[in-house]
């Protein structure tokens, strides 16, 4: 019973396409996050949602649109994919609790 | 905003030796300092954390120390084993409030050799 699960694990697509990544947590946390990890392993927050409400938006291009249908789910939709979007995207949950991370989605843009 | 620096970027130790990773932070409002271990193909996993009301915390072979005055904190791993090989990240955050966010260090790749 995985605490934070995200799908797919790998995503290979062409420049200009639109893709989505899904995330679900069964920890009962109110807050969920999206992080981007670049090729140098640097981890940077992109968004956070608390109980379906956007709390943090770290000046991410508006091609990235998070959506939270309920507090256990936070999906990430990316329009018009660019080469620079290639990275590993991590979902996490927890705010006043230590954050727990999923195993990531490796996005590769051809 | 918060800025977290982490050193060294790579660390190689022999099995059984100790490893120390150091981080500094800039924002005096930060009061929560977790450490994460990331293995290949996996997400970061919390291994230990410390809050600013204590100076040291230990969990078996892992310990973290915090110097709030100097704004630095360190991870100590004793009796290292090959399975300790991974990338380790420190982070800092003002704890509490839904708008709080973790700022990560740049990571340390630890290799434990036989």
What can you see in these coordinates?
The complex is a heterodimer of chains A (110) and B (114). By secondary structure, chain A is mainly beta. Chain A has no helices and 11 strands. In chain A, strands 2, 4, 5, 6, 9, 10 and 11 form a 7-stranded mixed beta sheet that branches. In chain A, strand 9 (87-93) and strand 10 form a beta hairpin. The termini of chain A are far apart. Chain B is mostly beta strands and 114 residues long. Chain B has no helices and 11 strands. Chain B has strands at residues 4-7, 10-14, 19-25, 32-38, 45-51, 56-59, 62-67, 72-77, 86-92, 103-104, 108-113. In chain B, strands 2, 4, 5, 9, 10 and 11 form a 6-stranded mixed beta sheet that branches. A 5-stranded antiparallel beta sheet of chain B has the order 1-3-8-7-6, with no helix packed on it. In chain B, 33% of the residues are buried. At the A-B interface, strand 5 and strand 10 of A face strand 4, strand 5 and strand 10 of B.
């Amino acid at each position: 019973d995985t605490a934070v699960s995200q799908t797919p694990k790998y995503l290979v697509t062409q420049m200009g396409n639109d893709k989505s990544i899904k995330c679900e947590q069964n920890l009962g946390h109110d807050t969920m996050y999206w992080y981007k990890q670049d090729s140098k392993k640097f981890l940077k927050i992109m968004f956070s949602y608390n109980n379906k409400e956007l709390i943090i938006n770290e000046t991410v291009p508006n091609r990235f649109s998070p959506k939270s249908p309920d507090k256990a789910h936070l999906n990430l939709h990316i329009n018009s994919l660019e080469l620079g979007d290639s990275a590993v995207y991590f979902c996490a949950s927890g705010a006043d609790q230590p954050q727990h991370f999923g195993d990531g989605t490796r996005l590769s843009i051809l | 905003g918060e800025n977290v620096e982490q050193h060294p970027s790579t660390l190689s130790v022999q099995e059984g030796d100790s490893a120390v990773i150091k981080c500094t932070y800039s924002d005096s409002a930060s009061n929560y300092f977790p450490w994460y271990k990331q293995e290949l193909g996996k997400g970061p996993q919390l291994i230990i954390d410390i809050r600013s009301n204590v100076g040291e915390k230990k969990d078996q072979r892992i310990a973290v120390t915090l110097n709030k005055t100097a704004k630095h904190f360190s991870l100590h791993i004793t009796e290292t084993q090959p399975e300790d090989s991974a990338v380790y990240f420190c982070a800092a955050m003002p704890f509490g409030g839904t708008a709080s966010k973790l700022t990560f260090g740049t990571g340390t790749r630890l290799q434990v050799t036989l």
